[in-house]
Amino acid sequence: MHSTLRTERLVLRPLAPDDAEDLFDAYRRPEAMRFMDDGAHSSEAETKKMVDGMLDGPGTVWTVRTAEGGPALGYVDYIGNAGVPGMGYFLHPDHWGNGYTSEAVRAVLDYGFDEMGLDRVELWISEENRASVRVAEKVGFRRRGRMRQKYHQDETGHDKLTYGITAEQWRTGQLAGNAQAAYLLAPILAVPDVQAAAEYFCDKLGFTVGFLYGNPPTHGGIHLGEWTSEGAHIQLSLTDQPLPEKPPVGFYVFMGEDVDGLYERYQAAGVHIEREPTDEPWGMREFAIRDCNGYLLRFGRPS
């Protein structure tokens, strides 16, 4: 059980089953749910189901209350099983504009970095959610990029901004500035087993799972880099068609680290090496591997 946190004006208590009654008063409000995954709740039972799911899940959730006591006004949480530790926050509309969310987020960041040993935390915020963006930037998160998402209740997709902060930035106060937002290209690899391919990329190549869809998975996303919206991204999609031993497609990963060091780690992990590190005439030092399904990946950086 995680600890109760206290700030000057707030008490943050671990989520409990009976918090559903308080939270329903916020979840039934359409303006509060505009940027959430689901629409406004129509019954307390719907909110209770959500709370039960949060309690059964791998995340860590605190309800937000005033120091004087009273009902739960919202929550701040760490999302479990995410490649980069993710944070979410939610507050009853009647209490917007009081600075409660940023105050609670600061307390949860302190706890996450100091007690949970997190090295970074990430937020995904709808671009239109200006209030949430203001909270992120006020606390000190830096914008890292953007990506496209669509909630099931929406007719069209929307842009989500990725904000992130590292433990070092939080502790040293180096919080200013945002990275330039950019779209990313993510090739889709057809694979006979999405779960096995994702495990190979994570265990052998150092990638992180962004998501797996289905049980067993039929689609998934993996990435190599510090933040979800940066670095090398690959999507994995289930196919029942046989793959050639060496599929006629390859991928180039521009690296931000030492080529030879990565090569040695892959070699020690038993990765199939297609070509050892070589200084190429076009000014890059590169090596190549083949993954568990025969796809070619070349890694390089300026020599």
Question: What's the quick description here?
Answer:
The chain is an alpha+beta fold and 303 residues long.
Question: Can you describe what's shown?
Answer:
This protein has 303 residues and is of the alpha+beta class. It has two domains: 5-172, Aminopeptidase (3-Layer(aba) Sandwich), CATH 3.40.630; 188-302, 2,3-Dihydroxybiphenyl 1,2-Dioxygenase, domain 1, CATH 3.10.180.10. Helix content is 24%, strand content 33%. The chain contains seven helices and 16 strands. The protein has a five-stranded antiparallel beta sheet with strand order 1-2-3-4-5, with helices on both faces. It has a four-stranded mixed beta sheet with strand order 9-12-11-10, covered by helices on one side. Strands 13-16-15-14 form a four-stranded mixed beta sheet, covered by helices on one side. Strand 7 and strand 8 (158-166) form a beta hairpin. The mean pLDDT is 89. Keywords: Antibiotic resistance, Transferase. Belongs to the bleomycin resistance protein family. InterPro entries: Acyl_CoA_acyltransferase, Bleomycin-R, Glyas_Bleomycin-R_OHBP_Dase, Glyas_Fos-R_dOase_dom, GNAT_dom, N-acetyltransferase, VOC_core.
Key features?
33% strand, alpha+beta, single chain, 2,3-Dihydroxybiphenyl 1,2-Dioxygenase, domain 1, 303 residues, 5-stranded antiparallel sheet, Aminopeptidase
